[in-house]
Amino acid sequence: MNAIRPLQNETPTPATSRRLRLTEIFCSLQGESDSVGWPTVFVRLTGCPLRCSWCDTEYAFHGGEWHEIDEVVASVAAFGVHRVCVTGGEPLAQKRCLALLEALCNAGHEVSLETSGALDIAEVDPRVRRVMDLKAPGSGEVERNLWSNIAHLQASDQVKIVLADRQDYDWAVARVREHALSARCPVLFSPVQGKLAPRDLADWILADRLPVRFQMQLHKLLWGNEPGR
């Protein structure tokens, strides 16, 4: 397994110890997870060490601008929305993501974290709801899965598996059973847009009586692949 490195220039210094690189902050409807449909502020951090074949946020791999954590918290508060989702890219690739999550919780927000599951989630503030991906073979990043993360999952967390074909589905079913994932937290199966027909995935789940939740990305149904929505 290849080592996953943090973003470049991530060594903390007195001048940057409270700064993160952000791609965007915006308010939209939550399109995934069990909070689907709720108005949510999304804080998208820049950078990701993975390159999933079906990634829809490649624009967040590079660039972005540096912001103080206190500035980010103030920007989130200005939207007047209770729910906040920290996402990427891979937000945990920036070590100071942990401090941001803590600060958002301290500000009284209901906070979720969307993470690839390739980086350690053990130090994430326990008040944060972790939505952790497991990468199926069709992603091209199946070797990145950090299986030790499963032991850290709580009932308030969620596991998401994005599936491109029947091979991915069979792999996911085997992992759900092997690790008793549905006994730990909700498990969500999603089809890759344009790769796997949603109806096929729904039929497979029903045929196998799987204890998982089928989901489609609400924001894509409403706004397509428009960034910031």
Largest beta-sheet characterization:
9 strands, mixed
**Low-pLDDT sequence parts:** 1-15
The CATH architecture name reads: Alpha-Beta Barrel
Structural class: alpha/beta
Share of helical residues: 10-25%
Integer tally of domains? 1
Strand order in the largest sheet: 3-1-2-4-5-6-7-8-9
Task: Kindly identify the CATH topology.
Answer: TIM Barrel
| Total E-strand runs | 9
Fraction in beta strands: 15-25%
Number of helices: 6
CATH superfamily: Aldolase class I
Provide the fold topology.
Layout: E1 19-29, E2 39-45, E3 65-68, H1 69-78, E4 83-87, H2 97-106, E5 110-115, E6 129-134, E7 158-163, H3 166-178, H4 181-184, E8 187-191, H5 198-208, E9 213-214, H6 218-223
Notable features of this structure?
TIM Barrel; 229 residues; 23% strand; 6 helices
Walk me through the structure.
The structure is a single chain. 24% of the residues lie in helices and 23% in strands. It starts with 18 loop residues before the first strand and ends in a 6-residue tail after the last helix. Strands 3-1-2-4-5-6-7-8-9 form a nine-stranded mixed sheet. The protein has 229 residues and is an alpha/beta fold. Helix 5 links the parallel strand 8 (187-191) and strand 9 (213-214). It contains six helices and nine strands; from the N terminus they run E-E-E-H-E-H-E-E-E-H-H-E-H-E-H. The chain has one domain (19-221): Aldolase class I (TIM Barrel). Helix 1 (69-78) crosses helix 2.
